[in-house]
Amino acid sequence: MESRTRVLLLTRALVAATLLTFSLSGCAWIKGIFAKKETAEQEQVAREQTEEEEDNAAAPRVIDPEVERREIKRPAIDTENFEIGAYYGSMSVEDFASNPVYGVKAAYHVTEDFFFEANYGKTKLGTTSFELLNPGVDPLNLGTGRPFTYYSLSLGYNFLPGEAFVGRKLALNSAFYVSGGLGSVRYAGEDKFALNFGAGYRILPTDWLTVYIDVQDRVYNSDIFGTTKLTNNLEARIGVTAFF
Amino acid sequence: MLCAILATPEALASKRDYAQLFVVEPYLELKTGPGRGYPVTQVVARGEAVDVLFRRTDYFKVRTERGVEGWVAAVDLLKAQYADGSNFSIDLGDRNGFRTHDWEMGVFAGDFDGASLVSGYVARSLNDNMKVELTGSQYIGDQRSGYMLEVGLAQVFAPEWRWSPYVTIGGGIFRVQKDLQRPNLVDRNDETAYIGLGVRYYLTRRFFVRAEGKERVIFTSRNDNEELTEWKVGLAFFF
Fold first, then answer.
1. Is B37's Cβ below 8 Å from some Cβ in A?
2. Which of A123, A174, A191, B118 could be disulfide-bonded to A164 (CB atoms 3.0-4.6 Å)?
3. Residues A102, A41: one domain?
């Protein structure tokens, strides 16, 4: 009985030892498999790297993988609202006949309808009837060259904007306008406060060039003949301006 | 010759870099001129681009990819986008512009110690509140006439208000052309300094009204200085 028990115990011990041996060796075997796989991967990567380096050495890369954002340039937009130019015409100064007038003009177009305008002009005073009858006398003390100058600051309004058709193929932008403002006139060494109002027609051969005709009435109180009276002084002119 | 002169600005302009905008709305209308009275003769389809050549008042001259040129209203062009999808933005000359703008110009009429006063000014904004002003004036009276040219500072207290008060201070040159009380005046140029109080009122679009009173000292070369009052009201615009 005792010997049977001993044999059983010995047998179990043997089985346990055998199992332990197998299990330990199995772990090592599995570990070995993984190790082999890792080595293969490393080899693959190394091979690829070598190939890549070879490629780089051979030719530049055609495709750049880094995507750059496209930069949008936003250039400042030119604003062309100022207008500057010169004019020539004829001005009738009350009691002093009509004479050529010339001057300069600057304007700013605030909206499509309204614009501000500044004018400075110069003309010459003609001879009065009294001077015609008494040659060589200058009782009015008009000065050498008998100059008459004025300036005005006006507000204008474009109405009837449209196109003027020149021939069959050409259409030019144009507009009628009215304007009015204030300023002063200077003659015989005196300044007079003056109001002005008038109308004109503007045509644009190009986007930046303007040709216009314009009539203005300059109204002021004159006392050069002793009594104060309101005078109307009409001026008709043709001018050229450029937008910038 | 004339053709060469007329062509020059375009030739110069073609070297410039223009802003390119893409049409996002179904179409963009091109007019023949910068105003509502001009007819629409071309449209640009959605997805197409236009080059913005220049601006006049609230219209833009543009050129399409096919080389067609026309005028687009600012409100229409605001709906277009840059190539990166960002919106086109401009100053429209509205109430916001009344608060924030770079330049102002205007014309005044008023009274200067009994004389008529005509005056024009241009102002540059340092910020929404502070402006540097250059003013040229002519006073025309029975007794005395002349000119003034002055530089000053104006402080607007609340530029966002429609009625917006301000104070102004400055000085410049006071020129006498005629003085009946002193017919033999030798020194016709004097210095002047002023302090003033005014109000500006936003009208519409780019326009506003200005009214102000100034207390002015003229530093004469005579024994005593002169103190004179000036009142004026005017129409101005900003851009």
1. yes
2. A174
3. no
CB contact B90 to A (< 8 Å): yes
Among the partner residues A79, A182, A192, nearest to B109 by beta-carbon distance: A182
CATH number at residue A207: 2.40.160.20
- Topology of domain B97-238 in CATH is Porin (2.40.160)
If one compares A23 and B169, the residue with the highest pLDDT of the two is B169
CATH, domain range B17-90: 2.30.30.40
Residue A101 · residue A151 · CB < 8 Å: no
Overall average pLDDT of the A235-243 stretch: 97
| pLDDT the model gives residue B223 | 87
**Selected residue with higher pLDDT from B14 and A123:** A123
- The reply to whether A124 touches chain B by the CB within 8 Å rule is no
Contact (CB, 8 A) for B202 and B208: yes
User: For position A52, what pLDDT does the model report?
Assistant: 59
Distances B173 to A183, A184, B184, B220 between C-alpha atoms, Å: 20, 20, 20, 11
Residue A77 in domain: no
Blockwise average pLDDT, block size 10, chain B, 239 residues: 48 68 94 90 94 94 94 93 89 91 96 96 97 97 94 96 97 94 87 97 95 96 92 96
Mutate to test the interface with A, among B178, B180, B237 (most CBs of A within 10 A): B237
A55 and A90 part of one domain? no
Q: Where are the domains of chain B?
A: 17-90, 97-238
- 8 A C-beta contact, residue B44 and residue B51: no
> What CA–CA distance (Å, rounded) separates A75 from A78?
9
Query: Model's pTM, two decimal places?
Result: 0.80
Note the Cα A43 to chain centre separation in Å: 64
Range in A58-67, A147-156, A210-219, B155-164 with the lowest mean pLDDT: A58-67
How many C-alpha atoms does A85 have within 13 Å on its Cβ side? Answer: 22
Rounded alpha-carbon distances, angstroms, from residue B162 to A110, A166, B199: 20, 47, 10
Is the CB of residue B35 less than 8 Å away from at least one CB of chain A?
yes
- Shortest Cα distance from A207 to chain B (angstroms)? 9
More confident residue, A202 or A49: A202
- Residues A183, A122 within the same domain: yes
pLDDT at position B11 is 47
Looking at the fold, whether A120 and A63 belong to one and the same domain comes out as no
Judge: B90–A158 Cβ closer than 8 Å, yes or no. no
For residue A151, the enclosing domain spans: 82-243
Domain stops at, among A70, A104, A129: A70
